[in-house]
Amino acid sequence: MFHRFANPARFLRLAAAVQPWAAGATVVLLATGLVLGLVASPADYQQGETVRIMYVHVPSAWMAIFCYSALAGACAVALIWKHPLAGLAARATAPIGAAFTFLALVTGSLWGKPMWGTWWVWDARLTSVLVLFFLYLGYMALDNAFDDPGRGAKASSILALVGFVNVPIIKFSVDWWNTLHQPSSVVKMGGPAIHPSMLTPLLLMGLAFTTYYVWVLLIRIRREIIATKIRALQMRQAAGQGAAAPAAAPAPGEAR
Amino acid sequence: MDALTSYFYMDGYAGFIWPAYAIVTAVLVGLWMISRRSLRDAERTLDTLSPPEDRQ
Question: What's the domain count of chain B?
């Protein structure tokens, strides 16, 4: 039974070493990115000061997609190779991805009102990101809907993998359909169509959100590993109590 | 209007820019705090189930 924890034990040591670095990097990158984005960078010639919303909106949207890809990848590894850590990583990633998706939607709405004249429009980009948010919520709900965590993880992993079809739809929605949302200006043919004075804070905030993800992910995976240990200990103790009871005639075997 | 007031005024877009930053801060700090508290609670439960020297 304990060989299953061998890998997570090694992971816990690695997590303890990486976590302070991820936390420090997040604080430094966020501080630099915020100063550059809110103070040093210029207002946009068309969008004026509202362009400053970009420094939180775009990294949130990047992370919403990145976290879902990580979630689907972890679910695939958990389903195919039954790697225990992958399942825990998927479960730990979902709330972080949902938070970033929520932030992309809300900050986008706050940017859309002054620039497009509307808080919301049912176009391809916005709707597909809303669907992504519901996929995260559905994954989390299904993951917790079963008494047996293993069955919940299997069902929710399949949902996450089927939902992955939405990721390219989000990415290419601005090219495939007419939409109010502008196409990509950072990752495009011929290099970014954005001045370095704005690109630098944007990339710094993107990096800060990535290290934040690593930081919080490690905390959440550590929590999931401990929760698994607690469940195993409780089952062993329950089995031990069953053995001590006078009615338990045949000697019970291993817990499970 | 002094320089600081004019900065926070953001050319009239203060009502969109600052709430965006406020909600990002609230959600990211909140998620970090919830995750950390959840880890602490789990560590405490594990300690009550098995003293640290018994583990591994």
Answer: 1
